[in-house]
Amino acid sequence: MVLEKLGEALKNTLRKLAGKGFVDKEVLEEVTRDIQRALLQSDVNVKLVFELTNKIKKRALEEKPPKGLTQREHIINVVYEELVNFLGGKASIVVKPSKILLMGLFGSGKTTTAGKLALFYKKKGLKPCLIACDTFRPAAYEQLQQIGEQIGVPVFGDPNESNSSKVLEDSLKKAREYDVIIVDSSGRDALNEEMIDEIKSLNRILEPDEKLLVVPADLGQQAERQAKRFQEVLGITGVIITKMDGTAKGGGALSSCAATGAKVKFIGTGEKMDALELFDPERFISRLIGFGDLKTLLEKAKEVGAEETAKKIISGKYTLEEFYEQIEKIQGMGSFSQILSMIPGLSSLKGRLPKDYMNLQEEKLKKFKYIMDSMTPEEKRNPDIINSSRIKRIANGSGCEESEVRELLKLYKQSKKAMKMIKPGKRGLSGLLKQFKI
Question: For 13, what's the count of Cα atoms within 13 Å in the CB-facing half-sphere?
Fold first, then answer.
């Protein structure tokens, strides 16, 4: 997962702080060096890193802790707040009828992002459409058309027309009945003059409400140059960072975009069409340093009709039958690994659960269902009574192997054990959640 090493490094730094009885200048120097090292390893610009850590040191040394916070809790809060500010603050997203122009480089995931964005607005109750104005890349129209079919959104364009401005003019006439018009433009370097002229023409014709630059996370610090150029030429209204699920350089892209004044509005967190999140620096940093993000978890759960299930996951109170229901429903909320990162304190426990639990496949779920169908109501309510003879009977009745019955029971017990490790009012970082209002 992107920035996972940064997250672990920051969590270790905060644990170090939390374990100190008193934080003097020497301890603060040690802590800020740890933060510097973690950020530099995540490809964040050196100048930005030192600006950030200098702010942390200045506030930690000069500010008096607010009422109710100890000195070290105040410093942890300062680190959290400055990391949030470092990422440029929360961008405003108004869900309303809009015209959106997407621009970006080759290989940035722009066409896929166009589809994700359309699905985002569709889920919000609006009526989106897609316009294929990438006339430069072979099969770009066909790719967008396939995406449109997948999410049930119409796509307008002309694969035989090389003039993107003409494609847009013709398509806009067909798109009048739609609330949200999303235009996918050709991907080229921002310093390419031909590309600049083309995007200016599309901008003039569309008169967009949103001009969004799509940047891949693996672009790292180079994102700054691209964002600045597009900002100069078009006055972009925001940035979407893609591929946040598979690179260590996300820190460079995030901080570089923030440094230009172009706020990140969305981040792409996976390959599925619903793997697009509104970017909220507070929630992002909360997850990164182990404070969790229960708001996003419950929002995702609500989308797939699993709000009560999510609440049970958080509480850790569930039977074997409910355990299966939880696994089944959370498939639509992202990987279990992503969900764990949203629960305060549980991100550090991901390594303690079997890898199979993180990405349970549909076939495995079917087998688990057959196994539970072969159990008695008492066994489902109290799996502890299931001994070797019962396992043999359940395996025979379900047509599965005894090892698969044991696997299900093991997953259930391990998940409950992990959830019980998060206790309300527990001392340490999780005990600061209420004070930080996260």
Answer: 26
User: CA dist 151 to 118, 273, 305, 378, Å?
Assistant: 8, 8, 19, 42
d(CA 377, CA 374): 10
In 3D, which of 198, 203, 180, 179 has the Cα closest to residue 188? 198
Low-confidence ranges of the chain (pLDDT < 70): 1-5, 18-21, 189-191, 246-249, 287, 289-318, 325-363, 415, 417-438
Contact 119, 274 (CB under 8 A): yes
- Cβ neighbours of residue 273 closer than 8 Å, sequence gap 6 or more: 112, 115, 116, 119, 147, 150, 151
Neighbours of 436 (CB within 10 A): 16
155: tokens are 């796509």
Q: Is the CATH number 3.90.1150.10 carried by domain 98-288?
A: no
Closest to 190 in 3D by CA, of 223, 142, 152: 223
What is residue 424's predicted lDDT score, i.e. its pLDDT?
A: 42
Fold of 4-86: Four Helix Bundle (Hemerythrin (Met), subunit A) (1.20.120)
Q: CATH topology for 294-429?
A: 434 Repressor (Amino-terminal Domain) (1.10.260)
